[in-house]
């Protein structure tokens, strides 16, 4: 089917998500075990749902402020000071967004001119369409299993040119579960300052950490507040993917542009969802700790189960709810392997090449699923790999 010629040129820069393509394949398979879904399998905690119900009764059914309710922005400023070490003025440096995705979109829109280069990690989350939509040029920097998929600052330094406008970092990282430690982040910050480069710090998995690892926000470093856009979301920490609430912390000039554009796009984040977000951020964080403890048990099951499969190796992820097993010994591309598993063995995973060229030879597996589903899914993967290697 040819593309209609009445569509704008920029429209063609946006590609269908490979993850969604895999979801569509999985939906056609009866009894599939879907380990490709990147969202918590928990219900939103009851106290958050109760806050939303109360908000309806309290009349939060009208247009919200484009930048977000003032009390929510104050709560966000308090949270990022306590947890992320970032000082932010709630009146001018905090913006409530339709998830972290809107922060990414707005950042590319507001910062990029045609030809501007954007450094991204490979494998890493798919920022390519947002970058290309506004004429930007993605510049992938490979990370490697041998270094637990932590980026080598020297590789970033080698990728910087006089056209580099923005670096996007995602730590804790989707799909690898890698965490960039303080030394790596300080090196990135030094390069950003020296070369006058903006940094978009995408931090949706900030709370899903294991083995005593801690999350560090690059926006907390000296000299970085004026050049960092920090993107956060409630989707992962509070099992609120469908509520569509995130937020940005950034310099006033960027927040002003985000607020201005919000008026023209969707007016604001749904009022009831914002009240639920306020409850989530302001309450004791027991629900988050409980979910992370459950993920940790699943992580160990997945790590042990995958490494018990002859021909598969897998690092134990430091964070997130993803494993990134190496399937290169099967001789299949990651796409062929994923299609084979879903069609022949009724288990869905995500091809690693969706996340960049360096993701070839891997697949992403989500352990945001029940122990029963994970055990069955790993058993099916094992049978599939054995059949390929026989």
Task: Give a structural overview.
- The chain is an alpha/beta fold.
- The chain folds into two domains: 139 residues, Aspartate Aminotransferase, domain 1 (Alpha-Beta Complex), CATH 3.90.1150; 237 residues, Type I PLP-dependent aspartate aminotransferase-like (Major domain) (Aspartate Aminotransferase, domain 2), CATH 3.40.640.
- Helices cover 40% and strands 13% of the residues.
- The strands form three sheets. A seven-stranded mixed β-sheet has the order 2-8-7-6-5-3-4, with helices on both faces. Strands 9-12-11 form a three-stranded antiparallel β-sheet.
- Helix 10 runs parallel beside helix 12.
- The two termini are 39 Å apart.
- The model has no long low-confidence stretch (mean pLDDT 95).
Short descriptors:
390 residues, alpha/beta, Aspartate Aminotransferase, domain 1, Aspartate Aminotransferase, domain 2, 2 domains, seven-stranded mixed β-sheet, 12 helices, 12 strands, 40% helix
